[in-house]
C-alpha cells in the first residue's frame, strides 16, 4: 500500500492486522469491531471528506443524491456496486493506514479514511 | 483553453464554416457575439433561457445529410426532477417524427439508462426503433457502464466496436467517430479516453482526406466546460491534435444536460440537452445534481439536436429544439 512508507511500518501493520483478526475471532461484541462511522453523499460531495477512525471500524456510505455513485478506493481494496438514492455500502477497515477513495463515475468526488 | 463560450438558447442556430465564401452571416454574427467577450450566459430567473420555437419551425433544413442527436435519456430515473423520463423521451420521438425533413439516422450521446439495467437499455432501444431513419448510433455515458465493465451496454450496442465501445463509420462523405470517455476514470480526474483509444483514433483518421468533414461524438464534453464539476476530458487535447488537419470538425457531446457551443479554429464543440432532466449551469449551484424546475417549465429545458450537413460548404448547421 502506497502510504506505508517503510518496512518498519509494514511490520507494525501486520501485527495490528493479526491482532484485529484475533479480536474478530473472539466475537462480534468486541468494542473494536463494533466501532461504526458514516459518510453521507449529498450534491456530488462526500459530506465528511476526511474521517479518522480506530482499526476495525465499519464505515458506511449513504447516498442521499438523486444520482448513483460508486465508492472505490484508489488501491482497489474496496469497491461498491452502484448506489442509487438512499442505498448504503459498508466496509470494515481491519488495518491502520490512510485510504483514499473516490466515486468511480464522478471522480471529482474524493475522500479519505484515516485508520489508526 | 479560451473562454470563448456561450450557452445558446434551445432554438438558436449556429453554422460554422471555414470556407471563406461559405460563411453563414447569421452564424458568423453569432460567432462574433461570443468571440473575445469572455463567458456570456443567457439566463432568465436563474435558469437557462429557452426561446419559443420560432425560426426553426419556419426554416426548411435541406441538405445532403440530416441526423438527430439525442442524449441523456436516463431511462429508469424517477426522481422529482422528472418522474416520467419515458414520456419526455416520447415527446422527443414525436418531434423527430414530425420533422419536415426526416433524418437519415440518429446519434445518442450516452446516459441512455440511469442504472445500466438491461430492461432500461431495451426500453430505449425499443422506443427508438424505426425512429429518425434506419438506425441509432450510440456511445455510452457513465450511467451505461455501471456494472460488469459495461457488459449490458456492450452486448447491445458494442458488437462492431473496439475496446470499451469506440468506432467510426462513413455516411455520405462525412466521417463519424464515436468515442468512449467514461471508463477507467481516475480519482480527482475528468473523463478519459486512454492510450489504447487515442492510438486507435490516430490510425483511424490517418488515411481520411483532410477535406472530409469529421463528426466526433462522445458522452462527456471533449473540451473543458467546467472541470470543477468533472465536465471535461483529461486527454481530449491529444485527441483533437489528431484532427487538426481537417477543415471541418464538429464535436457533439452530452452529459451536462444543457446546450453549449464553442468554436476553436476549425472545430465546433456542441453539447446537447437531455431528454430527461436539466442540470445547472457551471458554477450556478453548489453541485451538478439534477435541477428541479416547475413542471410547466421542464419540457422547455429538455430537447434534441438536429444536424444538417450541406455538402460542399463544409458546414454543419445544428438546431436545438426544446420539448415545450
What do you see in this structure?
The complex is a heterodimer of chains A (116) and B (324). Chain A is 21% helix and 36% strand. Chain A is built from 2 helices and 8 strands; from the N terminus they run ααββββββββ. In chain A, strands 2-1-4-6 form a 4-stranded mixed beta sheet. Chain A has a 4-stranded mixed beta sheet with strand order 3-8-7-5, with no helix packed on it. In chain A, strand 1 (36-42) and strand 2 form a beta hairpin. Chain B has a single domain, classed as Purple Acid Phosphatase, chain A, domain 2, CATH 3.60.21.10. Chain B has helices spanning 25-34, 55-58, 85-97, 118-128, 151-157, 195-206, 236-241, 295-298; strands at 5-6, 13-16, 39-40, 43-44, 47-48, 65-70, 105-108, 136-138, 167-171, 174-178, 214-217, 249-253, 260-264, 267-271, 303-310, 315-322. The relative contact order of chain B is 0.20. The interface between A and B is medium-sized, with 22 and 28 residues.
- The CATH C-level name of chain A is Mainly Beta
Report the β-strand fraction of chain A as a percent range: 35-45%
Q: Tell me the name of the CATH homologous superfamily of chain B.
A: Metallo-dependent phosphatases
Largest beta sheet: strand ordering of chain B:
2-16-15-6-7-8
Instruction: Please provide the ordered H/E string of secondary-structure elements of chain B.
Output: EEHEEEHEHEHEHEEHEHEEEHEE
Q: Provide the CATH topology of chain A.
A: Immunoglobulin-like
Query: What would CATH call the architecture of chain B?
Result: 4-Layer Sandwich
Q: What gross morphology of chain A would you assign?
A: globular
